[in-house]
Predict the 3D structure of the following.
Amino acid sequence: MPYMIETWDKPDAGTLRAEHRAAHLDYLAQNAPRLLACGAKLTDDGNDGGGSFYIVDVDSRIQAENFLAGDPFSQAGLFQRNSITRWRKAYLDRTSYLPKV
């Protein structure tokens, strides 16, 4: 059951993000089977938007919370806040998962 996780960085946390980026990317690679989608949020001009977005395929909210807690960005205190919301997959990678009517 997928969950969306959205994070917002603390203000002026670009240096902290850069310091922990390699460990964060390793963490994502280790958890690739759980990731339906993820990436950094960007401003319209393509610069760092100060946060991240993940869709994780886990069995419960607790597992989604544990996934976020295990992220080196989270452990480093990068995030000012986050949101975790259960998600229904309707379309993903241009493929419909809607029931046929």
The chain has one domain: 2-88.
